[in-house]
Specification:
The chain is of the alpha+beta class. It has one domain (2-275). It contains twelve helices and 13 strands. It has a four-stranded mixed sheet. A hairpin with a 5-residue loop joins strand 4 and strand 5 (78-80). The protein is elongated and about 70 Å long. The two termini are 35 Å apart.
Length: 283
């Protein structure tokens, strides 16, 4: 595995981390992570790792927030109050429901995500993503809870409006008043209790971020057999394991880099077109 130094001027001018002969190679994919995972990857490659704590905390957070935001407006019909703005709970639910799975040994494990675009991998090498997307979402969720507590009265007014709009819609659909539940709301104390219940998860997330020294992006060369065993998830693909021998390059990313989401360039689209028929789609 060869280390390539980060070149800010090159990155600013091209939008790529790696030289174009690497970035545009049809067989090379990328994985972004934190320095906290560097040693393990350098020695073992990219492997499934035990994420039992993350899954438990993700499910706990998802359950707590669903109880705060879910309201049954009829006996069988529910809707969600717009409790938070960041979308953190959606990330947690996505990871809980789709990404985690049990291994044969009963341990919770998480697939390895790779991307065609080296700049997309950069996002996951940032300090804010240290520990992965689930950890990032937990940190955002803590901010959401504090923000809701601070502006609870304003939030509560919006929930009333949301309820009235939902009620009006059900009346227009032919529901009678007696079939529509009266307005309920999550109390301020419910959000305060959620902060306490999730304190361990939030502290762990902040600890991982504090241990982050720099980011790492790995360039991985795969063959057609590897690709055929992948699954496609938006702009990412996942595998069970990437041996160290397939990791050709590593780049360390400084903390002060500015990241802005960008669209794929023509070379990235060509790369995806090259492989899209081989990569499995989730059922």
């Amino acid at each position: 595995m060869k280390t390539i130094n980060f070149d800010k001027a090159y990155f600013d001018s091209t939008g790529h981390l790696f030289p174009l002969e690497i970035a545009n190679d049809h067989n090379i994919f990328f994985h972004g992570t934190s320095s906290i995972n560097e040693r393990g990857i350098d020695e073992l490659g990219l492997v499934y790792f035990n994420t039992s704590n993350l899954k438990v905390w993700s499910e706990l957070a998802s359950g707590i927030i669903d109880n705060l935001r879910t309201f049954y407006i009829t006996e069988k019909t529910k809707f969600h109050y717009n409790v938070f703005e960041s979308g953190a709970i959606l990330i947690l639910k996505l990871y809980t429901e789709n990404d985690f799975k049990k291994s044969n040994k009963g341990k919770y494990e998480k697939p390895i995500f790779l991307t065609f675009n080296d700049k997309s991998a950069l996002l996951y090498a940032l300090k804010s993503r240290a520990g992965g997307e689930t950890i990032y979402a937990l940190k955002e969720l803590e901010k959401d809870l504090h923000n809701t507590i601070n502006i609870y009265e304003d939030k509560e007014k919006k929930w009333q409006e949301q309820y009235l709009q939902e009620k009006k819609g059900h009346l227009e659909l032919g529901f009678t008043e007696d079939r529509i539940s009266p307005y309920e709301k999550p109390e301020l104390s419910d959000f305060e209790k959620a902060l306490v219940s999730l304190k361990g998860a939030f502290n762990y997330a902040k600890e991982l971020e504090s241990n982050h020294e720099y980011g790492c992006v790995y360039a991985i060369k795969l063959n057609e057999d590897d690709i055929s065993n992948m699954q496609f998830d938006h702009s990412y693909v996942c595998l069970n394991k990437v041996p160290q021998s397939k990791i050709l390059f590593k780049m360390k990313i400084p903390d002060n880099i500015d990241y802005a989401e960008n669209s794929w360039d023509n070379a990235m689209m060509e790369k995806w077109d090259y492989w899209k028929d081989l990569v499995k789609r989730p059922n």
